Amino acid sequence: MNETRIATVHGRRVWDSRGRPTVEVEVALAGGGRGRAIAPAGASTGAGEAVDRRDGGRRLGGWDVGGAVASVDGEIAQRLAGMDAADQAAVDAALVGLDGRPDRSRLGGNALVATSMAVAHAAAWPEPLWRRLAGDREPCLPLPEVQIFGGGAHASRRVDVQDFMVVPVGAPDYGTALEQVAEVYLAAGRLLADAGRLQGVADEGGYWPAFDGNEPALELLVRAIEATGQTPGRDMALSLDVAASQFYREGLYHLESDGRTLDTDGLCELLLGWIDRYPIAMIEDPLAEHDREGFIAFTRAVGERVQVVGDDYLVTDAAHVAVAAEDGACNAVLVKPNQAGTLTEAHAALEAARAAGFGAIVSARSGESEDTTVVDLAVGWGARQLKVGSITRGERTAKWNAGLRIADALGSGGPLPDRAHFPWGAW
């Protein structure tokens, strides 16, 4: 008997961090192996990413996933029955072929990615997924990228920039990195309280951005780093997810919190000014997803010292990464499994990034759960960076804390990638 043969596939409706239904899948193998995974969902989505299947209508705001769960229990379970879970590529190809649509909208990208991840966990059982994926490679922990302020679609567009984050570029190990980030988070909260601007939290756990424009958030973030005794740029750098597609309309960028409307050159000039004034190590989606010439010009200007990350621009697509590398647009890709649809496709995007000399950041989404698969992927695939939101809220800390347990399992304290791997390594 083939012990990794898929015996059963079962879906259920569960809830994400925004109170919306999502899909959980459990897979059982003939030899007793079991795997479970939950599909995340994004508030800010790229035009080319896999589409979740939602029921529509008035019930639960139209967000229910009864149809996607039915896909899992019906067509997907029937198609995967008897397949070898150890052959992830074959399983994912079967899922893609069964759906039959480029955007995965028939069965649902949420149904497909939860199934793909659950199969991977089952095939790894009883070992953790990260260990199976690493194989003979010596694992290391990814460098955390952590949200301190949320904006854009994550905070009712109080400010235009979607994420104001920190990156512990000087940390010697993973555990120390998280401690240093937590110090900055707490310091930022005290500064906000002192200024009478402490409000709630955004979708990913960062402070709600009670600012009168975008740049004040950068200023306070630098002050928070300094308040901890760390040196901005040496110990802790900044990272921005601009998510420019969210405020791009009819050829112009509308920065409503700043009261400004800019063309591509104007937005590039604004961002270049920020990079000159603040220790920004990474900047994600600085231009809209269709602004190819803007991406090329921006990367040409700063790519030697800053990671220019494609999210909506690349949508975890290996072919898009290859084109961007040929164009000289971006030098890093955000890897989101549900954006691609299956683990095989997400891994292909990461491998395309490696082939191009790009960085790769495995990322969670705004609508998350207690699922920690992205941590297994970052460690097991050897990605050097991980982005899961803030260092608050259970769906976020579940992932950061999973990294701490992996560090303990490695018995090494969680070594981080060498600075030399990153554009800011020469700072």
General description of the model:
Helix content is 38%, strand content 17%. By secondary structure, it is α/β, with parallel strands linked by helices. The protein has 2 domains: 6-126, Enolase-like, N-terminal domain (Enolase-like, domain 1, 2-Layer Sandwich); 143-426, TIM Barrel, CATH 3.20.20.120. Strands 4-5-6-10-11-12-13-14 form an 8-stranded mixed beta barrel, surrounded by 7 helices. A 3-stranded antiparallel β-sheet has the order 1-2-3, with helices on one face. β2 and β3 (34-38) form a beta hairpin. The chain is globular and about 60 Å long.
Search tags:
14 strands, 38% helix, 3-stranded antiparallel sheet, Enolase-like, domain 1, 427 residues, 13 helices, TIM Barrel, 2 domains
Strand and helix map with partners:
Blueprint: E1 6-15, E2 21-29, E3 34-38, H1 66-80, H2 88-99, H3 109-124, H4 129-134, E4 143-150, E5 163-167, H5 174-194, H6 215-227, E6 237-241, E7 248-249, E8 252-255, E9 260-262, H7 264-277, E10 280-284, H8 292-302, E11 307-310, H9 318-327, E12 332-335, H10 337-340, H11 343-356, E13 359-363, H12 373-380, E14 385-389, H13 394-410
Parallel strand pairs: 4-14, 6-10, 10-11, 11-12, 12-13, 13-14
Antiparallel strand pairs: 1-2, 2-3, 4-5, 5-6, 7-8, 8-9
